[in-house]
Please model this.
Amino acid sequence: MDEAARRAGRSPESVRLMAVTKTQPRVVVEAAYRVGLRLFGENRILEAEEKFRGLPGDCELHMIGHLQRNKAKLAAELVTCVQSIDKSETARALDARLLAIGRRMAIFLELNTSGEASKSGFASPEALRAALPEISVISSLEIRGLMTIAPLTEDAGAVRRAFRALASLLEELKAAHPELPLAELSMGMSGDFEIAIEEGATLVRIGTALFGERPAP
Ligand SMILES: *Cc1c(COP(=O)(O)O)cnc(C)c1O
Model:
């Protein structure tokens, strides 16, 4: 990560490492905590619940998988950020639950940059732009940035184009909405985090490269 940042003329401190602990047992989370990791990501809220209840208060837990509306209550109670908002309905469901417990939360808007139907996220920059006014007025949510999963391909050029598209969308939205706290680009996983950092990622989401291969589902 440091090398990729330096190559791109960026300071290594400008990129945060998220440990993605899906499928890993709680002992792995505890070990990661002991070596200094504080930012964790999970893609299923029920799995996150059993693993993260009672962790020290200095941990930051982000939901990075698709959030179903009927799980909004649990997400509102458990996580510090939902990175995978791709519908204003989900944002409103989260808002209702947050208001009920007097909390605020950071969110990212997810863009599907791969065109793969299996991936979640807004289907296009236009769809994301169209939803922004509705979501940005929701009082319990702060839109901190954008998130994407690059296409699953060996073609490094296609991966780079996806990251570049997300970075340029963030720049556009920052210029159009200076009142919003937009700053974060969550992009890059074990196989492509270096490209993501070169293209401006502020947060990379790493599972396999930290913890080894996950068991097949
Ligand atoms: C699993 C997952 C990751 C981590 O993937 P690795 O390739 O194991 O690093 C990152 N982001 C999301 C959204 C994931 O679901």
Q: What stands out?
A: The radius of gyration is 17 Å.
